[in-house]
Specification:
The chain has twelve helices and seven strands. By secondary structure, it is an alpha+beta fold. Strands 1, 2, 3, 4, 5, 6 and 7 form a seven-stranded mixed β-sheet that branches. Helix 3 runs parallel beside helix 5 and helix 8 crosses helix 9. It is globular.
Amino acid sequence: MESESVAAADAGGEAAFAGLAERYRWELRVHCYRMLGSFDEAEDLVQETLLRAWRYRGSFQGRSTFRAWLYRIATNACLDFLDRHPRQPAAGEAGGPAEVGWLQPFPDRLLEPPADPEAEPEAVVVARETIELAFLVAIQHLPARQRAVLILRDVLGWSAAETGELLGMSVAAVKSALQRARPVLRAHLPQRGSGQAMVPTAQERELLRRFMTAHERADIAAFAQLLSADVRLSMPPLPYSFVGRSEVAAFAENALGPGSTLHQGRWRGVPVRANRLPAMAGYLCRPDEQVYRAQVLNVVRVEDGQIVEITAFGPEVFAAFGLPAALP
């Protein structure tokens, strides 16, 4: 029946075929994002996937599901991209965690499947631990093909045979690649558990509220109280990171405290969600202006009632979250 549906869409022309393939865009976007670590690049590769699907629609013979066929195209598009643009995480300062300069946040509003009564009943759950920024950073240390094997096997739950068929590998090669990939991933993941909550907890909401209030008041002491002793602040794509409560608080003092340029303005925080984590979209109104302009998007990871990680992105990511460039 699926083959007949694809054939009917093919007969209906490009628009009909695109409508069928469009049902899978949201999950293909997540898949490409895991492969690449960049939201913008994932958007481009999903578009490339749908174009390739139309161009090579005659290769779908019904031996696999239409969804698996699209995943194959998307994975190969990502592998082709990584072949053309090889890159490795940069060594962190003072032996700290590696920096992934191309890392971008993923809006939570795009992590849920769209309401579509005609879509397949098979639901894909985007688990928190496989979309968190820490996971995205860790998986970038894997060679591209190992990364694909790990995502297909451990994240999407495909069998070794299905993974091998998609990637053109033997079952033995798939198992070998997975055995090599798992220890590397564990070595680069945070030692603490990231938690499994799919929705913000009351504790996370309260910490985010206090985080935003501290920014709006430029209250460095209140800000420091929210941080764990070993908190880490990073600012992709800038190759800078700060580790430890004193270092992060000192950075905040330089950025927000008396004497800083930003201290002269007024801050406004807007709560959002990114990568299944709480985040603050920060807007700054400078003394000579009458509007709040997009300044920074801070994604925070909370454990044991404290903020253990802050990843700060520039205003260029606001559009993906449906956020305006300025507020009155």
